[in-house]
Amino acid sequence: MDAEFIQSKFKQLGARAMVGPVRLPPRLSSSGQVIIDIGNDRRGEYFDIQAADDADAVVLDIQPQDRHLLFMVRRPAFRPGLSQVKHKFLCGHDERHWFVAGVPDSVAVSTVMTAREALKPALVRALERGQKGRQKKRHRRRTDAFVRQGEWFFVPAPDVNANEQLVLRKEPLRRGRGKPHLCEFLYRLGGTTVYVCRQYPNGLTEGERRGLLQRNPQAVSFNWTTMQRDPVVFVRGKVSHADHATILLNGCIE
Questions:
Q1: Of 80, 81, 83, 64, which Cα lies nearest the Cα of 13?
Q2: Domain ranges of the chain
Q3: What percentage of the chain carries pLDDT values higher than 90?
Q4: CA dist 39 → 100, 182, 192 (Å)
């Protein structure tokens, strides 16, 4: 990987990039590995890019005005005769901070614009299908189809009749270990019941948790919380987040 070339591309965005070898324990193989994260030091945020010697990286597209670029990494084939493995990452700036997002492998993208489209939920893309107007307007944080805060897209749902007894106040909305988006009013329908704790932030189903307790009886003392995975979520009122401007929703669905 050409570290100076990669750093020069990120510099066009007004960002710093530090490129170095993969930092993994000696017992683990780093062949083909590339890890991209956001670091922070006394000078502020930077892109921390760790790459193995046999990984090949290229910038497919860069949009300095929007402060976004599309980064692709080619990894050696696992076995002779197989194709190279390609991973694509959208790197950029959103409101207050730099971010990196993995682009789904199932979607063919070659530009920043198509990568941003690929990261939208299928519901949002369906609502936008057939709409006229400049495509660039679809990437604003507020459009006729949605209001976006970070990775969450909220679309209008004016006909929802929520059971007020089940409406939660100041309820967090999050994925994994990320910072929560705090919703003034939130109402969930359906989904799969999961058990969440610090050790398992993405949750375990009843069967998965039962298997864990059989293997590790001490896990019963974990601070478990029951939550719903992949429910339909309705949100009303203010949605706040430490890294984003607060938005106000009058009736939306995630």
A1: 64
A2: 3-119, 153-253
A3: 46
A4: 11, 25, 34
